[in-house]
Structure prediction request, 336 residues.
Amino acid sequence: MDQYKRPEDRQPMERVLYEVKKIIVGQDHLLERLVVALLARGHILVEGVPGLAKTMAIKTLAQVIGGEFKRIQFTPDLVPADLIGTRIYNQKSGEFNTSLGPVFTNLLLADEINRAPAKVQSALLEVMQERQVTIGRESFKVPNPFLVLATQNPIEAEGTYALPEAQVDRFMLKVLVGYPSATEEFVIVERMTGMLQAVQKVLTTEQLLDLQQEVDKVYADPALIEYAVKLVMATRQPKEISLKELEPYIMFGASPRASINLILAGRALAFVRGRAYALPQDVRDMALDVIRHRLVLSYEALSDNVTGDDLLQKIIDRIPMPEVPLHEPARVRYNA
Prediction:
């Protein structure tokens, strides 16, 4: 991104990131993945210790795109009705009225999702998949666009309910958020103890829907799809790429959802980078975020302190990127 451009000369997604970075220091990886998820109609699971601006990032993003933002703090005593809503009896009319829950929003922050019991987790994941809820005999669609950012705290286990592997598979991306550098933390403290800049709304939800349709037109060469499938297949049969030593560490490899989301996320990333076609590098850059939460590791991996990222990195390094025919560099047409 050209930092010397005037804000009004930037493309829409550049302007979005420019405004968000008035508040958020660093976290470039998380912010880029948030934008990718918005464009690809996906949901994100973010894992990081408290205090890393996860909440502030999505709240600021909601302000910039003019979307509605709601936050749910997950606790063990939540019930599904606290999320999706319920029917309330009106004594005056003698009828039941429907009260819709906080999931009816554009950007939903599900804070510490692993603190809620399985029923509540399932209710949220159903909304994510179906984009609608059923209360009584009526179905209600959530607004469009709809993005869920769920957070997990990796440093506590007491009072938490781990997300089942089959359910966590519904998240398009899992992003790991780390600590800022010393320089970034200095700027964070300086910024948070002073006057924060006001962010401007630079995009409407209607314009975002138009951009999502533009992303659907981003070209993905068949060789690129084959590359994505090879990456995912290697998590199920690592011996096929001469990595038999990884087999004891993987109980179950990634599902076909991983292959689909690799292409969807790769196209969105290409769009953010200003291209109307995806390259192998786009898919490679998204591979860890798309696949890491879809691996089911064995007890042997846990005992040897081997992470999913360790295994995936070896697979990514082993499989060569294809030579996709280069297209004429074409700027993506924006409808902003």
Remarks:
- The first strand starts at residue 44 and ends at 47.
- Confidence is low (pLDDT under 50) at residues 1-10, 328-336.
- The radius of gyration is 21 Å.
